[in-house]
């Protein structure tokens, strides 16, 4: 029993070692990439400003507009359902009043 537990622990340690070796390899590749292509990792100031303009002055208003449209559509559907329910209730009472009146007239 203890032997199988230690085998499982050793297996997990091997997996962790393999994962850490792979992470080190990725870090080495990343360092090599940064050393070889420094301009790819550090965008220029103009590009950063353009990205900020696109993010805050174009994408953000579009997201806000879509959110407002979704909320408006939800409220319109909710109002339609409430009005439809009231219409059904009123029709039911009109039907009952008509039925009563018809019963009284025929009696």
- Structural class based on helices, strands and sheet pairing: mainly alpha
The largest β sheet comes out as: none
Determine the N-to-C terminus distance: 92 Å
Strand content: under 5%
Radius of gyration: 35 Å
Low-confidence stretches: none
* Coarse morphology: elongated
Oligomeric composition of the shown chains: single chain
Query: How many β-strand stretches?
Result: 0
Secondary-structure element order, N to C: HHH
Q: Which range best describes the helical content: under 10%, 10-25%, 25-40%, 40-55%, 55-70% or over 70%? A: over 70%
Number of helices: 3
Number of domains: 2
What's the mean pLDDT score? 77
Keywords: Membrane, Transmembrane, Transmembrane helix
Transmembrane segments: 66-99
Would you mind describing this structure in some detail?
The protein has 107 residues and is an all-alpha fold. It contains 3 helices and no strands. It is elongated, with a radius of gyration of 35 Å. It starts with a helix and ends with a helix. The mean pLDDT is 77.
Secondary structure blueprint with pairings:
Blueprint: H1 2-36, H2 38-41, H3 45-106
Keywords: Membrane, Transmembrane, Transmembrane helix
Transmembrane segments: 66-99
Summary, kept brief:
94% of the residues lie in helices and 0% in strands. The protein is mostly helical and 107 residues long. The protein contains three helices and no strands.
List keywords for this structure.
107 residues, mainly alpha, 3 helices, 0% strand, elongated, transmembrane
């Amino acid at each position: 029993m203890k032997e199988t537990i230690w085998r499982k622990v050793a297996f997990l340690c091997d997996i962790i070692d393999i994962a850490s070796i792979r992470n080190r390899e990725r870090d080495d590749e990343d360092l090599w990439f940064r050393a070889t292509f420094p301009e790819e990792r550090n965008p220029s100031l103009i590009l950063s400003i353009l990205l900020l303009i696109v993010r805050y002055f174009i994408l953000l208003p579009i997201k806000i507009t879509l959110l407002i449209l979704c909320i408006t559509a939800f409220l319109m559907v909710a109002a339609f359902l409430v009005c439809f329910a009231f219409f059904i209730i009123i029709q039911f009472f009109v039907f009952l009043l008509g039925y009563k009146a018809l019963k009284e007239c025929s009696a």
